[in-house]
Amino acid sequence: MGCAGSSQAKADGAVKKIRKPKPWKHPQPITKSQLMQLRDEFWDTAPHYGGRKEIWDALRAAAEADLTLAQAIVDSAGVILQNPDLTICYDERGAKYELPKYVLSEPTNLIRDS
């Protein structure tokens, strides 16, 4: 018998499918290059806050991929989704991984670099 929380399957047997995060707005309008810098800073520091580096790497790859590939990456890495938009996930050991929306999608008030 396994732990009830050790599987991605819900009681009805359905696996949570990844979806895009809801539209969001950054506190101040930011440029694409500022957004990329925020993302790079997050991914560079995230493994230092706990969890396994290979899971962080898988989450980064999933965050930067289209939904179908992201689903395959998450499934093969054994990532358990709490939220289908990838904002809160767990690994098979129960470590929690929280992803900010800015690494998953662009804000509605993004300023296009000229």
Please provide a written account of the structure.
With 114 residues, the protein is an alpha+beta fold. The chain has 3 helices and 5 strands. The chain has one domain: Ub domain-containing protein, DC-UbP/UBTD2, N-terminal domain (Bacteriocin As-48, Chain A, Up-down Bundle), CATH 1.20.225.20. α2 runs antiparallel to α3. A 3-stranded antiparallel sheet has the order 2-3-4, with no helix packed on it. It has a two-stranded parallel ribbon with strand order 1-5. The longest helix is centred in the middle third of the chain and has 14 residues. 32% of the residues lie in helices and 11% in strands. It holds the Pfam family UBD.
Average pLDDT level: 88
Counting DSSP H or I runs of 4 or more residues, the number of helices is 3
Assess the beta-strand content as a share of residues.
Answer: 5-15%
Structural class: alpha+beta
The CATH topology: Bacteriocin As-48, Chain A
Tell me, briefly, the overall form: globular
Main sheet characteristics:
3 strands, antiparallel
- For the largest beta sheet, what order do the strands appear in spatially? 2-3-4
Number of domains: 1
Main traits of this protein?
114 residues; alpha+beta; Bacteriocin As-48, Chain A; three-stranded antiparallel beta sheet; two-stranded parallel sheet; 3 helices; 32% helix; disordered N terminus
